[in-house]
């Protein structure tokens, strides 16, 4: 919508010729019958106004400032409110314009390019009444503020305001140069403007990080500005700014900020619901066979999470064996685990109903003491698992509970014809772990996991796993009840 709004707005030239009451889009002010700005409630009550003697619009050509148009004879009034500066010049049609007498300001519905004084006089005769040349620059648009001292009639006290417009050809910098009557303290006006810009960012709709708050607090409390060197302007860069656009006026930024806040609140609420669901599931999972857990993945750089099920989880969703166990096999693929439950959904050894505990893409980790399955994308009894989401679902079966690892010729996985590798427990109430495919086997080298990108042969893997599981462990095997209690 913002791009469409900009596309429907007349070409932006900073200064525009406006009729009283004309609404020319978000990029220009609205003037009343007295040709003064129609202020909004967000402008505040204490709007400062200053007399202006001369206006120039500059851009950059060949890395140098260039006069687009302007005149030292233009008389105007400058207002500084709580959210913008507004400049209104009623006598734009009665002065001699500099830069080759070029008058290129915007005339709505008519672009006038007059190159000599005679043409300018013709334009004077057809000029409509009750118009003024005007601009407004909202604080988010202002990229820098410059000012200079009184340097004589040809170089009066000056403010120079930088704004940027994003065009298809790249960024376009404009500099609005405002001349002030001799003796005016341009530094004090620049200080007033900078302080108001800082306060707007602190009080406005945008969320600032700690660095931004510090920078804008300093701007809101900036002291008397140092005098510029002779023949130059002092320069003060605004810590952040936005390109001129209908989508970057304060009202539009407020709407965007509200949308962002709403989205963030919804995300927090969803995360909270997920945590609550995980707590409920973890409470019930102590009764489930095999034991399972919905794990919240650690943040990047944080220590690995040690699950009470006897495995470690790092921020990349990678499973690791605990230090006391010997790694025997690690791979990823399409995994599924089923469990027997009664009609209430609570796991039970006596029930005849078998339902999926989890199904999707994940990892299979085998140590000398347990088989762990982690689904990182799919479904689980505790809810969906998104590939880039904050949770993963873990199921663990102690080696002592495994009765066989073999190939099954048929499967009930939708869209999959089999065969599958099946890990069966001694107690049929535990259900079974099914491996539909192995996409890559994972090897640990120098404390890092490396994937061997090849499609695994399930029959060969079943043979290897069966041998691994039957191999006696040199370490004592903890009972499941002892592990769950830790």
Number of domains: 2
**CATH topology annotation of the largest domain:** PH-domain like
| Physical arrangement of strands within the biggest beta sheet | 6-5-1-7-4-3-2-10-9-8-11
Structural class: alpha+beta
| CATH architecture designation of the largest domain | Roll
Assembly context of the chains: single chain
Total of helices? 8
Largest sheet: 11 strands, mixed
Average of per-residue pLDDT values: 79
Shape: elongated
Percent strand: 35-45%
Q: What is the total tally of β strands?
A: 23
Q: Which spans of ≥5 residues are poorly predicted at pLDDT below 50? A: 1-10, 100-127, 341-352, 476-486
Helix content: 10-25%
CATH superfamily of the largest domain: Pleckstrin-homology domain (PH domain)/Phosphotyrosine-binding domain (PTB)
The CATH class name of the largest domain reads: Mainly Beta
Query: N- to C-terminal separation?
Result: 56 Å
Q: What does this molecule look like?
A:
With 486 residues, this protein is α+β, with helices and mostly antiparallel strands. It has two domains: 2-248, Roll (PH-domain like); 283-485, PH-domain like (Roll). The protein has helices spanning 2-8, 98-101, 117-126, 186-203, 210-220, 250-285, 458-470, 480-485; strands spanning 16-19, 48-61, 64-80, 84-89, 106-107, 110-111, 131-138, 144-148, 158-167, 170-179, 234-237, 292-296, 305-306, 311-313, 319-321, 327-341, 353-367, 370-380, 391-398, 402-408, 420-425, 432-445, 448-453. An eleven-stranded mixed β-sheet has the order 6-5-1-7-4-3-2-10-9-8-11. Strands 12, 16, 17, 18, 19, 20, 21, 22 and 23 form a nine-stranded antiparallel β-sheet that branches. The longest helix is centred in the middle third of the chain and has 36 residues, at 250-285. It is elongated. The model is unreliable at 1-10, 100-127, 341-352 and 476-486 (pLDDT under 50).
């Amino acid at each position: 919508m913002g791009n469409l709004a900009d596309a429907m707005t007349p070409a932006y030239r900073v200064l525009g010729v406006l009729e009283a009451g004309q609404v020319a889009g978000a990029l220009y002010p609205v003037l009343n019958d007295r040709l003064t700005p129609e202020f909004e409630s967000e402008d505040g009550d204490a709007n400062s106004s200053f007399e202006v003697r001369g206006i120039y619009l500059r851009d950059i050509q060949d890395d140098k400032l260039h006069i687009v148009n302007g005149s030292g004879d233009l008389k105007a009034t400058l207002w500084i409110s709580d959210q913008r500066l507004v400049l209104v010049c009623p006598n734009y049609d009665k002065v001699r314009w500099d830069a080759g007498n070029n008058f290129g300001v915007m005339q709505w519905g008519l672009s006038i390019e007059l190159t000599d004084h005679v043409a300018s006089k013709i334009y004077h005769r057809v000029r409509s009444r009750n118009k003024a040349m005007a601009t407004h620059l909202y604080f988010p648009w202002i990229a820098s503020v410059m000012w200079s001292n009184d340097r004589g009639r040809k170089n009066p006290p000056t403010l120079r305001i930088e704004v940027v417009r994003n065009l298809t050809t790249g960024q376009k910098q404009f500099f609005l140069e405002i001349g002030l009557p001799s003796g005016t303290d341009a530094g004090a006006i620049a200080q007033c403007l900078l302080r108001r810009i800082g306060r707007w960012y602190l009080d406005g709709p945008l969320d600032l990080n700690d660095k931004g708050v510090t920078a804008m607090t300093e701007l809101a409390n900036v002291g008397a500005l140092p005098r510029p060197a002779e023949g130059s302007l002092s320069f003060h860069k605004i810590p952040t700014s936005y390109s001129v656009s209908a989508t970057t006026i304060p009202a539009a930024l407020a709407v965007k900020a509200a949308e962002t806040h709403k989205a963030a609140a919804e995300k927090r609420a969803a995360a909270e619901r997920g945590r609550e669901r995980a707590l409920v599931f973890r409470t019930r999972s102590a009764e489930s066979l095999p034991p399972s857990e919905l794990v919240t993945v650690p943040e990047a750089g944080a220590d690995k999470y040690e699950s009470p099920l006897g495995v470690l989880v790092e921020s990349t969703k990678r499973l690791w064996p605990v230090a006391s166990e010997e790694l025997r096999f690690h791979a990823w693929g399409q995994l599924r685990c089923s469990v027997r439950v009664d009609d209430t959904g609570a796991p039970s050894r006596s029930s005849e109903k078998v339902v999926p505990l989890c199904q999707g893409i994940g990892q299979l980790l085998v140590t000398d003491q347990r088989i762990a399955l982690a689904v990182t994308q799919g479904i689980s009894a505790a809810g969906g698992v998104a590939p880039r989401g904050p949770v993963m679902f873990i199921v663990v079966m102690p080696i002592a509970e495994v009765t066989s690892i073999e190939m099954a010729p048929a499967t009930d996985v939708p869209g999959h014809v089999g065969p599958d590798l099946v890990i069966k427990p001694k107690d049929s109430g535990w259900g079974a772990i099914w491996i539909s495919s192995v996409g890559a086997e994972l090897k640990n080298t120098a404390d890092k996991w490396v994937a061997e990108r090849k499609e695994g042969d399930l029959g060969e893997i079943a043979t290897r796993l069966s041998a691994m599981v039957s191999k006696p462990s040199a370490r004592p095997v903890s009972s499941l009840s002892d592990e769950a209690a830790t």
